[in-house]
């Protein structure tokens, strides 16, 4: 199948081109970008699509997606995503994760990091990983894996991570924020492993000193110092949610590390609430208080319950620690706090990443091949709306980014983080001849999010076409339920 996208505004962050052109693509990749690619009548076997007046760019590469279902990836497709990777938490064993995704089929490309949390849970708590996100959420609140390791235990779980890298993991995902009292030497050991293997780390940092003066080391300072000492490429996940009101200090710390030559990158999403398991360490009542938050800042996803007091929160954490919840850390209606979210996105070279969460329905159902999705689905609205909301805020409403900068933040920069660990990533995030045919075509005047906290599975508006490996997953704004062209992105054997 060959397709000619004719007459669109082509935006290519790989070359800096922003102008009217045609794009010729096939399942093998992008064949050419230019004008008059098929002079006169369209060639036999080429499907022509008129995209005049629309913006054409490389599909969005989401480094931080915990969506492992057709249902969730379809929401992300309608948000412009063509590659959805679980790198902050990862899954273990990665070989099983890749095999199960391939067997089920995926609308989008997919990939996984080696899971620091799962490796530690196996060694410290005897919990065998099963490459399942629900099992991973259930483990988060288990204190058995959150302690520091003995030298023998440290060596054992580092060996597990090394083996996962050999099996194609895209780096190491580190949920440090879920075990914030662990020995900082362990994190440094992970950074040394990553540097030796030539792979990135993707870290949910531990608490900041402003929040907990007794923390072993400031979370953001720790990642900067480890990158500087080891030379590892270290990615700071969702800086908006882990920094909260202390964002400006954290960004200054990261900027200083970069200026000194450290390989520190950062991501953000445009929401004032996060989502995780209610048993997470940082949702413990005393830690919420340190952040200036209350139990009422926590909302249980399945029931919509806003937690009334500390006693109820402790009960929920005890009875069902893996239950997904929302944690409201900034008030998006407050201009000052909304400005913090804007500054997180605007930080130089910050990439957009969703932290998309699984979609579930009452009764524990976590997958659906119906489209539109059945009513009653629960998730965080960032699953459906992160990229469209970012474009609305940063391009349409404030003009903070040009379209070229938007595609650089959403497509090119995230793909470039993976160039060393997965050379196949070099074909993503740009529109040069030979690049992967992962393309989003959007209406620049209508692109916006539609998902809300009350109705989180409403698809974004304004993605007119989406091609994944040259296959139309979205055409004329409608999702093709038969299209499952997603392919694995794997690390190079180490």
From TrEMBL:
Residues 48-474 form the Amidohydrolase domain. InterPro entries: Amidohydro_3, Metal-dep_hydrolase_composite, Metal_Hydrolase, Metallo-dep_Hydrolases_sf. It holds the Pfam family Amidohydro_3. Residues 358-383 are annotated as: Disordered. GO terms for molecular function: hydrolase activity, acting on carbon-nitrogen (but not peptide) bonds. This is D-glutamate deacylase. It comes from Amycolatopsis rifamycinica.
